[in-house]
Amino acid sequence: MPASKGSILDILLIVFAVIGFIAVLGFAGMWIMHGGMMHGIGSCYTGMRSMFGR
To answer: Cα–Cα distances in Å, from 46 out to 35, 36, 37, 40, 43?
Structure first.
């Protein structure tokens, strides 16, 4: 029984949605952890700026 084009597109859409959801959760987690370690985004910005000498 061959799969129709609609079901193949649905499967691809679900796969890409799951990958995107995992990527967004990973990015949000990294951002929250980084902000917690550096005590806010402002101090991280000043630290990076001084590191590159600008």
So the answer is: 13, 15, 14, 11, 5
- Give the global pTM: 0.50
- Give residue 17's pLDDT band: very low, low, confident or very high (50, 70, 90): very high
Distance in angstroms (rounded) separating the CA atoms of residues 34 and 2? 48
Q: Which two tokens stand for residue 19?
A: 């990958």
Give the type of residue at 5: K
Q: For residues 41 and 35, is the Cβ–Cβ distance under 8 A?
A: yes
d(Cα 39, Cα 45) in Å, to the nearest integer?
Answer: 11
- As to burial, measured by CB atoms within 10 angstroms (0-12 exposed, 13-18 middle, 19+ buried), residue 4 is exposed
